Structures are given as C-alpha cells and as structure tokens.
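To whoever is on call:

I kicked off a structure prediction for a single chain this morning and the downstream step that reads the tokens threw a length-mismatch warning. I double-checked the sequence; it's 312 residues and nothing unusual in it as far as I can see. Pasting both halves so you can look.
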Amino acid sequence: MKSNAKTLKCLKPVAHAVLGVLLASLVGAAAAQGASDPVVARLGAVTIGQTEVERLLQGMPDAERAAVKGNRAGVESWLRQRVASEALLREAQSKNWAARPEVKSRIDASVREITARIVSGTYLESIAQLPAGYPSDAELVAAYEQAKPGLNIPATYRVSQIFLATPAGADAAAVAKVRDEAKRVAAQARQGDFAALAKARSQDPRSAERGGDVGALPLEQMLPEMREPVSKLKAGQVSDPVQSESGFHVIKLVESQAARTATLEEVKPRLRLALREQRQQDMVRDYLAKLAPETSVSIDNAALDAALQKVN
C-alpha cells in the first residue's frame, strides 16, 4: 500500500549482511575453480569462478538472494574483498606463516575444538534418531488442539490502489491540487475500469503494472492512514482519496477474508517439524542427564569463586 519510494525506505538492509556471509563462505574457494569455469573476478593469479558464485547464491533463501542480486554495487565490492582475502591468504602461506609457533598453537586449538564439536554433535544426532513415522497422526491432532488458541489468522483485505504522489516539500496549494486530482480519479474509478485506470494513472510503478493490485494484507501491515478506510469498505467499493505522508491513495477493496483459525492441514508441516525437534531435544537432555547425573558431578566452590573473581 505504500508508494514505491516509501516501500524502498522500509526495506531491511539485508543485502550487506548476506554479502558478508558470502564472503566468509568463499574463503579458499578460488583455488578450487575448474579450468573451464568462466572467471567472474580476477586479481593476478587469484580468481573467482562463476560456478562457485552461482552455487552459493542458489543455496540462499529466495528473499536474501533477491536482495543480493538487487545490490550490484555491493556484489562488486564483495568480489573485490574476496580476491583481496585470497591474495592475503596466499601471501601468508608463501611465508609459511602457519608454521610459526604462536600461529600453529592457535590452529591446533581450533582443530581440537572443531573436532570435538563434530564428534560430539554427530554422536548426539545418532542418539536422538527418530522413526520416520514420528509424530503419528494422533499426536499431530493432539498437538494441534493444544496449540489452537495461538493459531489465529487475522482478517485480510485484498486491495488495489491508484497512487498520486505529492511533490517533496510541497506547499498547501500544491497538496490541494493533488487532492483535487485524486478526487477526480476516484470518481472515474467508481464509474470505469479500475485496473485500466491504475495502469494509466497510478504513480506507484510496482502496483500500477498489476492494475493497482497490492495483494491481500492484514490491517496492521497497511499504512496507518489506510486501516480505518479499508476496514469500512465493502467488496467492489472505491474509497475517497486517503492522504499519507507521500501522497494520496484511491483504494478499491477487491475481497476480504474474515479472521479464522489455521487448519490442521495448513500447519501440519511446521507442527511435525516442531514436534520432532522438541522430541530430539528431550532425548538429548535426558541422555546427558543420565550420562552426568547432578548428584555425581562435584563442584569445588572455592575454585569456582576464584575463577569468577579473576574475570572482569
């Protein structure tokens, strides 16, 4: 329901964070590039292959992948950092830096820690194996009935809009001019083809190309100024112009869905996953409790107090 400019302002800055994850994921990957793989970025002998970039992008959630692909400058900056990181690693390796005693001790400690995590983690996974049939249909139904009070789906309103922007820093006369134009557009929309009018007149490109359609939303996801007008519309009705910070919105309610409780079929995949995860956590906790019973573990309080006092 927001104008295009306002929508862009509300986007979370996920792209930079995701690029950082990509940078970390590709450390050391340049050396593994195949001879026939097209080079995306190069710094002397250091290269990043197209296949490796594609593989990492494909492994990302859709929203994060779209954020990265839409931030070309950020991607190019990440590529430059990536080849610089690889060049730094190669320079350190050429000086046999890993053999220095203080570096080798840190490497050995890290290897021991990671090895311990992998061994312990995979062993616990083997202990917490669940049968494929868990949970049963009866267990899913029981869990659904217990969770039902929290499975409310709010009422949704499928709306279309025609947006007319007010110029930045506009005075009262300029705003009044846009308001008058929005009133004329609203009158035309009530008499004609709303979708065609939205494509021709709306200044929000994203919704205009879809005939003004902005999808089905609960009221809390709409601009505050729109919530009350939308809630009072009946299907097929067109509102008077609604003023927001960025302009005027002529709104048509296409259809609405009353608030309801999610069905078992709708939540079954998530519910099954939650039950399996909870059961595995219980199995791990019970196993560890048996492995190291509370009454069998002795704690030297004096030594513990001394350790706590030494740490600020």
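Update from on-call: the warning came from a stale cache, not from the record. Cleared it. Sanity check on the structure: The chain is about 55% helix and 15% strand.
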